[in-house]
Structure formats: C-alpha cells, structure tokens
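Exercise: predict the fold of this chain.
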Amino acid sequence: MNRQVKWGPFFDNQPRELTYQTTSSRDTANEALFAGPASFDGNRVVIAGSRHVRATVRLASWKRSANGDLTLTLHGRPGAELTIEVSNDLQTWTAVGTAMNPDGEAIFQVPASRASASRFFRAVAGTDSTPSHFRP
C-alpha cells in the first residue's frame, strides 16, 4: 500500500466534501493517528475532522452445536474485556456475558436458550461506544 487516499480528478469548480472510512486490523493498538496534508491542484491543506480510529471487534467465526448452543470466535484488541449483548430489534440490548480477549481472540459460548434464530448479537470492547454488530 502507498498509504495515500486519492480522489478525482475533478474538472469543475464545485465544492466537495471528501470522506473516507478505515477499518482497523486485528493487530491495531488502542488508537491509530491519522495526520498529514491533502493536496488540491498543488495547494496543500491539513486534514480536518476526526483523525483517530479505535480498534474494533470482529466476528471471526460462529458455530451452532447440535443442541443449539452457539460458539462465537471474536477478534479484536488483545487484552480487552468484551461484553456480549443480544437484541431482537437492534434497538434494545441485553448483556448476556463477558469474554476475555488475552491474545486477540476471544471465544464466547451462548446457551441455546439465548441463541434463538431471531436474535442479533454485538460485542462491546471495554468502554467502546461503537460496538460491532453481527448476526450468525
């Protein structure tokens, strides 16, 4: 990768808001800093707005046993405590337990009684306000 984000070319004088979205890797530290200039026709402008990204939690795999129990394998920041929550409507969330993530991988067992097909799951790392949602 060249560590650059590129847009254009644009051949008019219309104002634009250019945005991009990043995804942290499994090995991302607590925060990664984004800094640097943007260049528009040779005019350098310092980037503005939020320039920090926080590590996320990702569903690596899931498996349902014969009795209906669900095993979730999650990847995220090593050392984080993950709170697993369930919802039927993606609005109201209920914690069903926690999982430790000592080395970047956490395994969480959801009993069949809590793992009905209509449920959604999310994992929240520590005090993270942007949980990762998934539906096995």
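Check your answer against the key: The two ends are 32 Å apart (CA to CA).
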